[in-house]
Amino acid sequence: MDELEEIRNDIDAVDGKILEALAVRRNMASRVLEAKDRKGVPLRDTLREEEVLGNLIARGRSLGLDAHFVTRVFHEIIDDAIRSQQLHLTAARNESELKRVAFQGIEGAYSHLAGQKFFDRSLDQVLFAGYPTFEQVVDAVEQGMAEFGILPVENTTAGSINEVYDLLSCAQVSIVGEEVLRIEHCLLAANEVPLANIRRILSHPQALAQCMKFLSQLPNCEAVPHIDTAMAAQKVKEDNDLTLAAIGSEDAGRRYGLAVLYRNLEDQQNNYTRFLVVARKTSPADIRIPCKTSLVMAVPHEEGALLKALSLLHEHKINLSKLESRPIPGMPFQYLFYIDFEGNTADPRISEALRKLRSATTSLKVLGCYPSQHRSRTSPRIQSMVGGAPQTAAPSESAAEPSITVSYKLVSRTSKPEDTIIHVNGVKIGGDDFVVIAGPCAVESREQILRCARHVSECGGKILRGGCFKPRTSPYSFQGLGFEGLELLAEAGREYDLPVITEVLSPADVEVVARYADILQIGARNMQNFSLLNEVGRINRPVLLKRGMMSTLDEFLNAAEYILDRGNHQVMLCERGIRTFETATRNTLDLGSIPILRRLTHLPILVDPSHAAGRREWVIPLAVAAHAVGPHGLIVEIHPEPEEALSDGTQALRFPDFAELMRRLYGA
Ligand code: PEP
Ligand code: MN
To answer: Is the CB of 498 under 6 A from ligand 1?
Structure first.
């Protein structure tokens, strides 16, 4: 046996042990369920999850494993455990007899893939059967030819699939589950051929709609609607015509022996389709499983009727996850409302709400109550990651605004006394939370931004920053990587589960930048660029507005007012230092502005100690001082090799400095 073979054998042995350990852990599902039952503990205990993750990270660190890796692995393991426990409580999917599952299309269609995902624990007991139309899928279930049917209801790019909604309102089936599938479209052809050779592309109209941008770049190519993505793939194989291609799943490509010419053709990277699983009978879900309930209702055609119905849900503290209206056939301009909400019909609070809702509606049909696919992931406690006890930020008084005449309204505490909390992919900015945003001044390369992202996540930072369009004093300085930078930033954010923030310089770029960035930054130099403020005010993306270096707080708040006035209420303010006669620091950090802003406005307030300091040695002291005056977070520049940085290298914290800062902020 040579050396490599020996090492490989050792690796195989370790992998075997990992698998055995995973199997043992999964098999604990039923035991832990029973124990939880006896103790009356809920299925999920997020406090315990936070603590477990924090401890695992600390332990992993002592073994040389990074926090992100440990978090990722254990998120999967914890998710699997929760799913196992839920499956134990769900009778229908535990039955051992053969199940027939109907879907629209042929094998390799996305509905088929969604079905495989849904039934992944019992695939050997499932027989899939494809049908040409959604209606036939529903018929198959209604008539007992299949126990389950899979129906797509909405796609995050192309929207609702109305035909399915219309079918659901009158079908004799019940929703018993949901599945969400990430849709990654591929261009499939009979052989490896240059894109220029392709003249016609076949696919389902929904798939074509999701790849509009890709298709618009091919002027000599015709997009041809086809019954189904997988059937399109099959046809490309049968015709064996090298000018023909299909858009479909990689799975369909493999199944029908096609070459994948391109991947990820979808306009939006976050392209998901939600599928419903229907059955003839309802299958009551255990009260401990977080469920969704779907219903369709009509309200009297009179003033306030919909509001009254929705208020009933609100009164019962019911959280809606979807509201869709569809025209009622044969009744012009009258609508049916489809509602999904979080809750289990077995819960008295929900059944009471439904009872009241019945009297506020002209018709109401519960389409089903089923386990929710969305299982939130718990974040590890930062304190346990950095080793120490939590420190609290300075208490903030939320007394009323002083009575001075002001020209802004919407940003004022008088118009909204409670704090605005901005939610960005599970990260909360505002209220009692304190978040740290960190990353390089500018995205410079794939390697640089990935290294930064990894370090930010490792240290408990919650959001990744990185400039792609840089407002530089000199036109000869590095101006940022532009759109290429955006791709890299988004990739790094995805890789490490961090929302990303980047600056937008021009009104014309707002829409495109918003496709990549979770938060848009308006830099100090643009605080009063009113056309830019108007433009970001029109979109639905959080904005971080930096204080102009020569601006008063009144001007700052009025700039924010522009964004709110245009309709975007998700604005956070950032103090980053102002210009004074002092030149020892790059700018003078106006810490006095923080308690004042907190009193004047309900918007979240962040501090950027990096652009105030201008030199790394002052960043940590300023950050710690800032933390003490009660902002909602910090935005800090870091760089793996500040000497090599293409912008703002002198103020970038080195990686160990950032780890130290996080210890100072969160540690004992
Ligand atoms: C930045 O955040 O990189 C930046 C340019 O900041 P400011 O607008 O505060 O100068
Ligand atoms: Mn900078």
So the answer is: no
